[in-house]
Amino acid sequence: MGNHRADRRGLRREPSESPTPAAGGRRKAERPARHSGSRGSLFRSLPSTPVLVGVAALAVSAGGAVTAAGTNLSAPEPARFSQASALSGASDVSQVSLVEARHAAISRDSRRDALADAADSQLVAQAEQQAEQHDAALAQLAQQAETQAKKIARNAWVLPLDSYHLTARFGEYSGLWSHYHTGLDFAAPTGTPIHAVAGGTVTSTGYDGSYGNKTVVTLDDGTELWYCHQNQFGVSVGDVVRSGDLIGYVGATGNVTGPHLHLEVRPGGGDPVDPYEALVHHGLQP
């Protein structure tokens, strides 16, 4: 049986090695064979699927960037967020961040200006306070100067007579005195006003022998000024006088040869000193 099967396979008609000519001299058109190789080269020239997906994503991102660029930032609508552009990286998020940064910079500048204004105000207040303190110090100094000026004016020495001529000097000897002359004589007509040489308190008034009518004014430092031979008193004990105040009037009482003022200067109420030198010491020229 096995041989019959082999023979049967051997009886199959083998295809003709050369085509049979068509009847009537016509040749049957032959269909070109399909070649899988040409189609394969076409598909190989197309991009792969991941590349196509990337191109589509770029297109969508470019559309989102155009949408973001056209957004009105000043509109009250809420901020819209779109996909960032793959080409520029711009998006609504970056635009909003820029606006927030500008607002932050403006706020920071405003705070800086406010701090500067506050510092200027503080400096002005300090300057005004210092000026007030300076003015107060000047006012106090002026008051002290005025007080001192009054004190100086009270203690400033003046000449006792407006019109006179000197006759006897301190230290001279004569039969008119039991000892040397202890004062300075200003000769003037009777009734000539006598002025206080310096400010002080009247501690004595009355008749005193050879001195005649005598007034004693004690200064703040204890110095005594004696005004002798007066015709009339002008003050009383306890009166406070200032330089130039009226003491009395020129006369000829006591041991005299004519009307005149006998002036003595006794520091601390002790022994007399030269009145001429005392007047010169206080800036006067008798």
CATH class of the domain at 165-281: Mainly Beta
CATH homologous superfamily identity of the domain at 165-281: Glucose Permease (Domain IIA)
Helix proportion = 25-40%
* CATH topology assignment of the domain at 165-281: Glucose Permease (Domain IIA)
Instruction: Supply Rg.
Output: 68 Å
Run of helices and strands: HHHHEEEEEEEEEH
Mean pLDDT across residues:
76
| Number of H/I helices | 5
Into which percentage range does the β-strand content fall? 15-25%
| Major sheet size, sense and barrel closure | 9 strands, antiparallel
Any low-confidence stretches, pLDDT <50, length ≥5?
A: 1-25, 32-40, 65-75
- Number of DSSP E strands: 9
The assigned CATH architecture of the domain at 165-281 is Distorted Sandwich
- Alpha-beta classification: alpha+beta
Shape: rod-shaped
Topology:
Elements: H1 2-10, H2 36-45, H3 49-69, H4 92-155, E1 165-166, E2 184-187, E3 193-195, E4 200-207, E5 213-218, E6 224-233, E7 240-241, E8 246-250, E9 260-266, H5 275-281
Antiparallel strand pairs: 1-2, 2-9, 3-8, 4-5, 4-7, 5-6, 6-8, 6-9
Explained architecture:
The chain has 5 helices and 9 strands, in the order ααααβββββββββα. The chain starts with a helix and ends in a 5-residue tail after the last helix. It is α+β, with helices and mostly antiparallel strands and 286 residues long. The longest helix has 64 residues. The N terminus is likely disordered. Among the domains are: 75 residues; 117 residues, Glucose Permease (Domain IIA), CATH 2.70.70. Strands 1, 2, 3, 4, 5, 6, 7, 8 and 9 form a 9-stranded antiparallel beta sheet that branches.
